Known about the structure:
Elements: H1 18-27, H2 33-41, H3 52-62, H4 69-84, H5 97-103, H6 108-115, H7 119-135, H8 143-151, H9 157-183
Amino acid sequence: xxNDASPVAPATVDxxxxxxxxxxxxxxxATSTGERARLRRADPAAGSRDAxxxxxxxxxxxxxxxxxxxRHRRWFLVLHCLALAEGRHDARxxxxxxxxxxxxxxxxxxxxxxxxxxxxxxxxxxxxxxxxIAADAAALNWWPLAELALGTESxxxxxxxxxxxxxxRIVHHFVAAAAARDAA
Length: 184
């Protein structure tokens, strides 16, 4: 395993999909066990100063520009969740976040709480979801959840719209998967 100063192997970087890049780096030898542990222990809600070097290296390798403190905090939440979920990200259709939450038997009320959450609540809910994903050894598409973290209450119209699309996408796939599960 590389030490903390080792560069991330270029083969793991996909600047078109920073979440896939972060996920791959967390699953491979690009991060050490200690680095992953520091990322899991950090508290993004408290503006934690833990794991700043790890996060910066991973952001840079994934092509994430998180220079603004608020944007860094939001991306750090996403990275923290990916670390908690052991890098389990799957962008394929069968792994849509809402569908996976339905398969894991999240209640409709819990998913409703997620899609209606303000930013402060997302800092609490998203790590819980990540821990559940890890406990069930499931994988999901983290993009809709990341869009919630990046766009909710951002003050940026484009990011807010992306968060709204993510909410609709989560609900659509959750309802469809729950109906299919209940019909079976």
